[in-house]
Write a structure and sequence with these properties.
The protein is mostly helical and about 80 residues long. It is built from three helices and no strands.
């Protein structure tokens, strides 16, 4: 455990950022699941869900939550899933 005041503050900031990042990743996972269900049910809104999911993934990259390669891999797999 840190003894210095600034180090304690940094620990609090890191904990808060970790929670925000987990929440955002969970949101992405939820959209991915919704998209897969829409594809499996042959729903017309699947393309709209795909674009929303892509925008979430891209914004996660810009915020530093996901790495660029990870985001590209997720988007490629989602695109392939829709072309089954």
């Amino acid at each position: 455990m840190a003894n210095i005041k600034s180090a304690k503050k940094r620990i609090e900031v890191i904990d808060r950022q970790t929670l925000e990042n987990k929440s955002y990743k969970s949101k992405i996972a939820t959209y991915v699941k919704k998209y897969k269900v829409a594809i499996d049910n042959k729903d017309e809104n699947a393309s709209k869900l795909l674009s929303e999911t892509f925008s979430l993934i891209d914004s996660a990259v810009s915020k530093g939550i996901l790495q660029k390669a990870t985001a590209n891999r997720k988007k490629a797999r989602l695109s392939m899933y829709g072309n089954k």
